Amino acid sequence: MINRKRLLSLGTLSMILFWPSSAWAINFSLNPVVLEINPQKQLNTQTKLVNLEGVPVAFTVEVFKWTQQNGQDVYSPTRDVLVNPVQFTLAPRGSQVIRVGLRKKPDQPELTYRIFIKEVPATLPKASAAAQGAATATSASITTVLNIGVPFYVTDASSRADLKTSALLRDGVVVLQATNQGSRREVMRNPLLQAAGKELRLDSRAVLGQSFITYVLKDLPANTRSVTLTYTDNQGKEHSETLDVQQ
């Protein structure tokens, strides 16, 4: 379960959710924050969004196919997944169950999607020209929206992850690459990199099957010879390895 406040600017909390990144006016909770089904047992699941304060908020819901290309997340329109409802308004202290169902027969060991639950900005009442001028002279208006990206995995029980990591020098910059040669995603939680007397905390990310991700380490000098990486995987196992930087 996650319970966060809406912030003044939108940022990525982790590989799991997208939340804004500074101080909030409205509280929400979402449970669960990751959806997964075994298609041999079920084809649908659900999550629940709760408005914890006293202001109504409208949302829309969209589903995208999630792949990784050239080390980056890519989201494409899809009709594979049905969500209900696709738009709703959360009453003060109200809640909404969001139901998700697969519409196609799985054709690979794991299918990966993102369900984006996005706040619709409230329409403010029009002020007089004088009032607008006074407000502009004394303050800046910031409009923010909540945008939650919920992973949805359709996973065969026989699928397995096979993650390999490497470090290389690319155009004078050290790059950490994680390659998943398996058929199931792997997650690098709380990755920590130590090199050249520095300690770098990296974003947690998922590495989809038959894909790779990269971390560009601009804070490291080009003459870095090796890096030590530690992280926790999707099963809670801790990993630590020292990687030579490939020149």
Question: Which tags fit this structure?
Answer:
247 residues; mainly beta; Immunoglobulin-like; 2 domains; 1 helix; 4% helix; Pili assembly chaperone N-terminal domain-containing protein; PapD-like_sf
Characterise the protein shown here.
The chain has 247 residues and is mainly beta. The chain has 2 domains: 2-155, Immunoglobulin-like (Sandwich), CATH 2.60.40; 163-246, Sandwich (Immunoglobulin-like). 4% of the residues lie in helices and 55% in strands. The chain is built from 1 helix and 21 strands. The strands form 4 sheets. Strands 14, 15, 16, 17, 18, 19, 20 and 21 form an 8-stranded mixed β-sheet that branches. Strand 2 (10-12) and strand 3 (18-20) form a beta hairpin. The radius of gyration is 21 Å and the shape is globular. The termini are far apart.
Distance between the termini: 43 Å
Number of strands: 21
Total discrete domains: 2
Overall residue-averaged pLDDT value: 86
Give the CATH class of the largest domain: Mainly Beta
CA-based gyration radius: 21 Å
Main β-sheet description: 8 strands, mixed
Listing every helix as H and every strand as E from the N terminus to the C terminus, the arrangement reads EEEEEEEEEEEEHEEEEEEEEE
Tally of alpha and pi helices: 1
Tell me the β content: over 45%
The helix/strand class is mainly beta
CATH names the topology of the largest domain as Immunoglobulin-like
The helix content is under 10%
**Judging by the overall fold, what is the CATH architecture of the largest domain?**
Sandwich
Tell me the name of the CATH homologous superfamily of the largest domain: Immunoglobulins
Shape descriptor: globular
**Which consecutive residue ranges, at least 5 long each, have pLDDT under 50?**
4-25, 134-141
